[in-house]
Specification:
The chain is of the alpha+beta class. It has two domains: about 230 residues, Rossmann fold (3-Layer(aba) Sandwich), CATH 3.40.50.300; about 110 residues, OB fold (Dihydrolipoamide Acetyltransferase, E2P) (Beta Barrel), CATH 2.40.50.140. The protein contains eight helices and 21 strands. Strands 6-7-8-3-9-10 form a six-stranded mixed sheet, with helices on both faces. A six-stranded antiparallel sheet has the order 13-12-11-14-20-21. A hairpin with a 4-residue loop joins strand 16 and strand 17. The protein is globular. The protein starts with a strand and ends in an 8-residue tail after the last strand. One of its GO terms (molecular function) is ATP binding. InterPro entries: AAA+_ATPase, ABC_transporter-like_ATP-bd, ABC_transpr_FbpC, ABC_transpr_MalK/UgpC-like, Mo/tungstate-bd_C_term_dom, NA-bd_OB-fold, OB_MalK-like, P-loop_NTPase. Belongs to the ABC transporter superfamily. This is Carbohydrate ABC transporter ATP-binding protein, CUT1 family.
């Protein structure tokens, strides 16, 4: 396996790019450590596939370098990079048995049959498909076909990285959790460097030790699932991760204090380098409290959604939607309420970026 380093990476599909708008990737510096489980998360069109194709060697970047264990592989073709890739649709041979499908990458490299048998049976045991080894792949269910596709990526011992490009998109929802769990277990057992590309936050957060969040060709944050949830460094991360996502509310900053409408909102700590003027408050629905009266932000309940484990309340204040997650009793639609925000979880953002620090209230 290998450490993968992207240095000053930029890419444009235009022959003569003039500015950032012409770049699909805008200056990326990133290091994936050897043996780590990473997810590349972002909406469609954010640059995930472009970055994946550059790492695999299908694209040569307009600028910058790709290093595998400090070796420059920027211009090397895919065959020279020792990368295994699992795609959205299973890549297997329907006319072959499961055994022959798993053995194919090793036979293609001239490995001894005894070594092939040991590797294939070991991977089959991990994937729980040992009883299918003599079954033709055409007779498998879609989830088992994707298992075999994963196994073909994992059976080689010489790969630098295994990359998964939205591998569960075509899998039935009730089977996705099972395959995600199996993939996580496989990573813990084989200790391979894995990069999982997806637009699904659940897949990213349940698989990866660290998640790279992309927006418009840029990396806006890299961190553990807990870090992304508890302290998003950009409002896009707060909004994209969570269900519902973080409330992002316009505010005015006056002498270090934040005001939403006419109510002062206590922040987690001092604002850094924010002059008086427009900014944004970020607060997750889990940390919004609803009372029938008292000090806080006056609001009116618009609707209440019962999702089983808890209720999601949508309220309107100063023409802004604010979500709160409640357990137990919830107010009724149309009811006038007061909202309060947990101070330690109330963050200030300027131009989308986190601008407050934990500590004493400003």
């Amino acid at each position: 396996m290998a450490q993968i380093k992207l240095s000053n990476l930029r890419h444009s599909y235009h022959p003569d790019p003039k500015g950032d708008a012409d770049y699909a990737l805008k200056k990326i510096d990133l290091t994936w450590e050897d043996g780590g489980a990473y997810a590349l998360l972002g909406p469609s069109g954010c640059g995930k596939s472009t970055l994946l194709n550059i790492i695999s060697g299908l694209l040569v970047p307009s600028e910058g370098k790709i290093l595998f264990d400090d070796q420059d592989v920027t211009t090397l073709p895919p065959a020279k990079r020792n990368i295994a890739q699992v795609f959205q649709f299973p890549v297997i041979y329907d006319t072959m048995t499961v055994y022959d499908n798993l053995a194919f990458p090793l036979r293609n490299r001239g490995r001894d049959e005894d070594i092939i048998k040991k590797r294939v049976t070991g991977i089959a045991e991990m994937l729980e498909v040992t009883d299918m080894l003599n079954v033709r792949a055409a007779n498998l269910s879609p989830d088992n076909k994707q298992k075999i596709s994963m196994g073909r990526g994992l059976v080689r011992e010489d790969v630098n990285v295994v990359m998964f490009d939205e591998p569960l998109t075509v899998i039935d929802p009730h089977l996705k959790w099972k395959l995600r769990s199996k993939l996580k277990e496989l990573h813990q057992r084989v200790k391979a460097t894995m990069i999982y590309v997806t637009h699904d936050q659940t897949e990213a957060l349940t698989f990866a030790d660290k998640v790279v969040v992309m927006q418009d060709g840029e990396i806006v944050q890299m961190g553990t699932p807990v870090e992304l949830f508890e302290r998003p460094t950009h409002t896009f991360v707060g909004h994209f991760i969570g269900s519902p996502g973080m409330n992002v509310l316009p505010c005015d900053v006056k002498e270090g204090a934040a005001f939403f409408g006419d109510a002062q909102v206590a922040l987690e700590g001092p604002a850094q380098g924010v002059a008086n003027g427009a900014a944004e408050i970020g607060i997750r629905p889990e940390f919004v409290t609803i009372e029938k009266s008292g000090a806080g932000v006056s609001a009116q309940v618009r609707k209440v959604s019962d999702v089983g484990r808890h209720k999601v309340v949508e309220a309107i204040a100063h023409n802004q939607r604010i979500h709160a997650i409640l357990e137990g009793e919830a107010p009724s639609a149309g009811e006038a309420v007061t909202l309060s925000f947990k101070q330690s979880q109330t963050r200030l953002y300027k131009d989308g970026w986190l601008a407050s620090t934990p500590g004493e209230a400003a």
